[in-house]
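Re: fe (ii) ion structure - here you go.
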Amino acid sequence: MVSVATPSSFPSPPVGPHILYPRLDWNRDAIVLGIESTAHTFGVGIASTRPPYILASVKDTYVPKTGGIHPREAAEHHIRVAAEVLRRALEVAGVSMNSVDAVAVALGPGLGPALRVGATIARGLAVYYSKPLVPVNHAVAHIEIGRLLTGLSSPVVLYVSGGNTMVAALAKKRYRVFGETLDIALGNLLDTFARDAGLAPPYVVEGLHVVDRCALKAREPAEMPYTVKGMDVSYSGLLTAALRAWRRGGGAAVCLGLRESAYGAAVEVAERALVHLRRREVLLTGGVAASPVLKEKMRMMASLHGAAAGWPPPHFAGDNGAMIAWVGLLNYLAGITVDPGEAAVEAGRGGDSLALRVLGPPLYEGAEGILYPVDWFGVPALAKHRIAKRYRHPLLDARLRVERTITEAKAVAAALRAGVPAPAIYFVDPLEAVIVMEWLRGAEKLADIIEREPGCAISYVEKLGAHVARLHGAGVAHGDLTTSNVLVHQGEVFLIDFGLASLHASLRDRAVDLHLFLRSLEAEHPENVEPALEAFLRGYSSILGRGEAGRLLNLVHEIRLMGRYREERRTAWGQG
Ligand code: FE2
């Protein structure tokens, strides 16, 4: 779900001395780009020291097909949409990356895999364009964008979203949390109830949650638990009771009871903080702040105490990149930056990432990635890590590494199913671009065997031909079939490095496999090309038949005639 906002239409109050950083130099011209990816939203915003301060905010939100937010799916969504969201944000703001002064990123709190996408992209952009990197706290960003867009100066803040429920305020020059949920967040309560009760998605339409809509049909609320402890709330008992009542046929009255207890408790803790801190302003923000019902309750509470209530427009109440850009700008002007070369993505790691115990130095550093020995639950294994390539644009680089890691895992699985030997895969982390696989200790490259004892290599090439035919028969082409990507281990021939495989291979993709294999033979073992080709075709025909092998060879011939570096040598196979 894409949302684009240009808040130039909102009345932005003049920005004076900042309450956190009173000495900011507003006479400086500065533009900061901010990236948000802590949960289901990938957003890019651009903020400036000149009105209207927010130049662009573009975001794309992952909507789970079923159930709640899945961190890994959210992260995959973010990678998919990142380039387009970034492009549109720059376009809307009318600036280029070169005119941006710094790149800001939300480093938490949030979901590990989702956070890492933003952190990786921000660091990549900062390195690629030589810009400082600015870390931003997501919760502070919600509050600051709220202050900017509402003009409230030092409010008590009720921040309610799918993952957060807290009451915060500035006290003694720091934002402090005065109350929070003791268990689940308000947004999570509403979504989980809706899902488990079977209310039909979409869950939110124009700010109105499906629970709000269901509640409109009730006359009286069902009696529901209501738990406020000091300035904290608790929602898990409410969820259990509401679901139980719903299953007993309680209907819309349950929605109304749930809504009243949930919103009532949230507004009450905000009220307690307002009175406790003797403030005159309340700010409602976060994704749930889009609810007109909750806004009305906040307005009523504030008026009881002669306080002002405000909330940013829905685009800016939910997660967005503009809030990260805005706080990034404040931090940048205050000199809070980190050297991107040193900023570890670890800053945004959740606790779910895999800690591999590395057993030694890398075994191999190839074009594809680094291979190093690791301990996999007591079994020595190999981890293949596709590392970032600084010569590629960071967005493209991130996408390629993820795609190739996924392709490799799928292709190896297909190969094994088809009976083609390949190192077994133990674990895949596409976002880290890591595959942990079986370690064929003592395996030799086919290239080395051909070099050493070409006669003996011929039988392996015949086996290879049969394996490639099995792979092709399963619809998969290897995509990088060189003599270095074929291993011989205990007499068996293994295929490795499937990162460029095609899983729905055309006849042409299959012919390219043979073409690449021949080219690597010609380059490194020219005297062995013909016997090797004959052996390969023998093996290939034994699985798919002579006709199929012939068709493949004809196509290889065509590919070679079109090739830029045409093979001069006429060979027997050349006539097909
Ligand atoms: Fe948030």
